[in-house]
Amino acid sequence: MSEISVVAVNVAKAGKEDELAALLSGLIAPTANDAGMIRYELHRDLDDPGIFVFHEIWESRKALDAHLSTEHIARYRQLSPDLVERKELFITAKIG
């Protein structure tokens, strides 16, 4: 199977931007140890500091699914409802 690309957008609730930034930044170090991770980058919108975008590349869907089952992602899921107004997730496969 080809590489899997993920774009995950998190929009902070008003006044929760810094807390969400800390929560999302805290995912970077543990994810570096997740098998099959090629790229895992967190970006913040230049015009709206409440918008955060992860750009991820995984070796396979199996590697991504394993990442989504980790303790650090479970912690994010537990804490994010108080911080996130809106989420969008795009999962695509590399063509060619």
Automatic annotation (TrEMBL):
Residues annotated as domain ABM: 4-95
SUPFAM superfamilies reported for this sequence: Dimeric alpha+beta barrel
UniProt keyword Cell cycle, yes or no: no
GO-annotated cellular components: cytosol
Alphabetic keyword roster: Monooxygenase, Oxidoreductase
GO MF entry, a single one: monooxygenase activity
PANTHER family named in the record: ABM DOMAIN-CONTAINING PROTEIN (PTHR33336:SF3), QUINOL MONOOXYGENASE YGIN-RELATED (PTHR33336)
Record's protein name: Antibiotic biosynthesis monooxygenase
